[in-house]
Design goal:
binds S-adenosylmethionine, 7-stranded mixed beta sheet, Helicase, Ruva Protein, domain 3, alpha/beta, 9 strands, two-stranded antiparallel sheet, Rossmann fold
Length: 287
Amino acid sequence: MHPKDSILYVLRKSQAFLKDNGIESSRLDAELLLSEVLNFNRVKLYTHFEYKLTEEQKDNYRKLLKERAKKVPIAYLTKKKNFYNSTFYVDPSVLIPRPETEELVEWVLKDTPSIEEYTVLDLCTGSGCLGISLKRERPNWILHFSDLSMEALEVCKKNYFSIIEDDSFNNFYISDLFDSIPIKKFNLITINPPYIPSTEKELLSAGVYEYEPHLALFLDHHEEFLTKLIKNLDNYIEDTGNLFMEIHPDWEPILKKIVLQSNKHIVFKKDYSNKIRMAKISNELTQ
Ligand SMILES: C[S@@+](CC[C@H](N)C(=O)[O-])C[C@H]1O[C@@H](n2cnc3c(N)ncnc32)[C@H](O)[C@@H]1O
């Protein structure tokens, strides 16, 4: 029998509590939250099953478990999310970075092996996960970040300063798409815009609708949004430049139409679950 304050005992109890509250990943979540409270990694939890929690640690853990039982996403409770090669600070003003977006990072890097001094604009940047991951892989690239939400842009700044470790950097813009971005031709533009129609809100996983920012999730007038994005592209992209974007699979026909009307080229790419999820738009015909 393990003492009531030990890691092993507390983990068993909290796993059962989360499970009873409908949390599918109850064991993992119990471990992640306990790791956070104790500042132990998960391996250390397993090698210290007999460790006894203090009253303060038990209180802090209890608070987090109660929040998790209400379906608050684990990343908002731990205030972090691993994405590509970095750990990003996240809070409820930004979307929690998703694995599909890592696939977009991979595609951009594979398609753009250049280590030249490219200028890159990451629109709808949120936590900055897309642009900052590119900067880590291509240190010579000069990044610019923009978002309509001031709170989200503050999170992006925080991540840039901690991950890239350059706090003199100041290429951040609050902007509705290109509206407030000084006219400048970029070699690359990336964007993961909001793309869920509000009619699909019932399909979202537990906690997403309640806790993630609706400005980051929902878009109802996507044709208008995409037209504004593509029509403005000529002012912001080099002739040889590319725009890489994450999209809703249903956008394929309308996006193709808008791109062709603007005399540009488009290539679509599927994600690992075989859904059309990404697009590359260029002035020149490329693959
Ligand atoms: C789907 S999230 C993407 C965040 C991040 N790039 C990522 O991949 O995790 C979309 C972001 O676009 C921002 N946004 C929504 N509408 C916008 C607009 N019209 N112009 C600029 N940013 C917008 C939201 O605030 C949110 O941060």
